[in-house]
Amino acid sequence: MKKLHTPEVKIVTIEDPIEYHLPGVTQTQVDQEGGYTFSEGLRSALRQDPDIIMVGEIRDNDTASTAIHAALTGHMVLSTLHTNDAAGAIPRLTDMGINPKVLGSALNAVLAQRLIRRLCDACKKQEPATDEERRYIETVVATLPERYKKEAAGVDFTSLFHVVGCDVCSSIGYKGRIGVYEAIIMDATIENSVKGGPSARELREVANAQGLLTLVQDGILKVIKGVTTLSELKRVVGE
User: Fold this and answer.
1) Which of 30, 116, 164, 209 could, after both became Cys, cross-link 123 (CB 3.0–4.6 A)?
2) Three-class DSSP category at 59
3) How far, in Å, are 48, 67, 114 from residue 74 at the CA level?
4) Where is the Bacterial type II secretion system protein E domain (predicted)?
5) What is the pTM of this model?
6) What angle in degrees, to the nearest 10, is found between the helix axes of 188-195 and 200-209?
7) Which of 113, 94, 90 is nearest to 213 (CA)?
8) Strand partners, 178
């Protein structure tokens, strides 16, 4: 939001609760008892002629429909959904009653993220990888989109960084967290797929063909760079 805000851009948010106060941004907080819901807040925001609207979470059909309408009428709308991955956002919205044909025109991008613990740089230790770890990494690296394969080129998978623990990290072995991401950017191929009302699996296959970097693949790149551990990636993202 800080990057999007300029004196010429009017931003209105509907949050539950307001977690960070942003100078220059009109922030409002949901009040369920007072009748100020996400959907009501969104309708109120539209009357203020904003350039950008941030809706803390889309939880129901009313909020989803109003958000899609806002996006189709020239507003940038940012929001969140609870899904397993980026592709899962599409069937989640259609389950809320959004017409897939309208959804394909309204969406620009869908981003999924997970937070994983970052290895402590003061004590992490490089050790030989097990045969199972090496085979798993090689399998994932082999599926990387072409533009990301250069990041793994020449990396020795026979050793990985592991947790140790020291005074800097309170003997935990990790210090801080970092995100792993996957983003589906709408293009003509993906938009046409969305308009057909695909399942998450079907949309994922289309996105993979378009060069999607998945959560696991992004995580593996961080593992081989010594940012986190393979066990931490599997704990958070799965296999």
Assistant:
1) 164
2) coil
3) 14, 11, 30
4) 46-60
5) 0.90
6) 170
7) 113
8) 116
Residues 13, 9: Cα–Cα separation, whole Å? 13
The CATH number assigned to the domain with range 111-238 reads 3.40.50.300
Instruction: Record the tokens describing residue 188, joined without a space.
Output: 């003509």
Across-strand partners of 28? 14
Q: What sign does the CA torsion over 184, 186, 188, 192 have?
A: positive
Q: How many alpha carbons fall within 13 Å on the CB side of residue 15?
A: 14
Q: What is the pLDDT of residues 74-101, one digit of tens each?
A: 999 999 999 999 999 999 999 999 999 9
What is the token pair recorded at 27?
A: 């922030």
Tokens of 84: 């397993």
User: Which residues make Cβ contacts (< 8 Å) with residue 40, sequence separation at least 6?
Assistant: none
Neighbours of 43 (CB within 10 A): 16
Each residue's pLDDT tens digit, 169-219: 999 999 999 999 999 999 999 999 999 999 999 999 999 999 999 999 999
Whether the CB-CB separation of 17 and 57 falls below 8 Å is answered with: no
| Amino acid, res. 112 | A
Query: What pLDDT is stored for residue 31 in this prediction?
Result: 94
* CA distances for 24 relative to 1, 51, 94, angstroms: 10, 13, 34
Give the amino acid at 227: V
Furthest C-alpha separation in the chain:
61
Dist. CA 28–CA 17, nearest whole Å: 9
Residue 138, SS3 per DSSP = helix
Count how many residues are written for the chain: 239
Q: Tell me where in the chain the CATH 3.40.50.300 domain(s) lie.
A: 1-80, 111-238
